[in-house]
Amino acid sequence: MWGPEGLDEVEAELLGPPEELKGRDVLELGAGAAQCSRWLAAQGARPVALDISHRQLQHALRIGGAFPLVCADAGALPFADGSFDLACSAYGALPFVADPRLVLREVHRVLRPGGRLVFSVTHPIRWAFPDEPGPEGLSVSGSYFDRTPYVEQDDAGRAVYVEHHRTLGDRVRDVVSSGFRLVDLVEPEWPAWNTTEWGGWSPLRGGLIPGTAVFVCERD
Questions:
Q1: Distance (Å) of CA 194 to CA 6, 18, 99, 191, 205
Q2: Distance from C-alpha of 87 to C-alpha of 29, rounded to nearest angstrom
């Protein structure tokens, strides 16, 4: 799944037809519990699941899967140039770094010529609205152009969660300046079958404003 709307890679084929994934080397960035890598392995691909969080990878280890788990910074990938055919990230890594170009340039380095990167993030327009699922979440509460990060702190004042806002134009420029060609930009519509309300996600908001942006990029 590329986002809470429920866009399924089986149907979207943003990484390519599932039957063509067999034998491909794929890097999952910000893998968390490695759900995407698990699906990729089931298609016959050779995924590597990377995350900076050791605890997230412990969850992945408990769930299981016959593929490598790597604890590392996405901005300093511990792989040789041209190691992968594909790279993917579903709401991982890129929203959580102040300069996503560091990650994109590293991914460009480890992809083979013609390799594809597909990543999804919260749609930038969502940053202008309150994170509420009901009608109160439909009125603009801040500037879309305010790039101040969202930060949660613990009782000692230490940052425990940080997410960085980039406008749609920022994201496109980041992709292009890092050496990629933007092939597609997917804004999934909220499907009628999805009645789930979770956090700021809901059928009400999803039917009116986009929630996810999926960038499909290629290394020429």
A1: 7, 24, 33, 6, 12
A2: 7
| Neighbour tally for 192: CB within 10 Å | 8
**Token digits of residue 173:** 């420029």
Q: What is the pLDDT of residues 103-115, one digit of tens each?
A: 999 999 999 999 9
Domain architecture of the chain: domains with CATH: 9-122+163-195+210-219 (3.40.50.150)
- The closest alpha carbon to 52, from 75, 68, 76, 73, belongs to 73
CB 27 within 8 A of CB 85: no
pTM of the model: 0.95
Buried (b) or exposed (e) across 20-37, using 16+ Cβ within 10 A? ebeebbbbbbbbbbbbbb
Q: What is the structure's pLDDT at 151?
A: 96
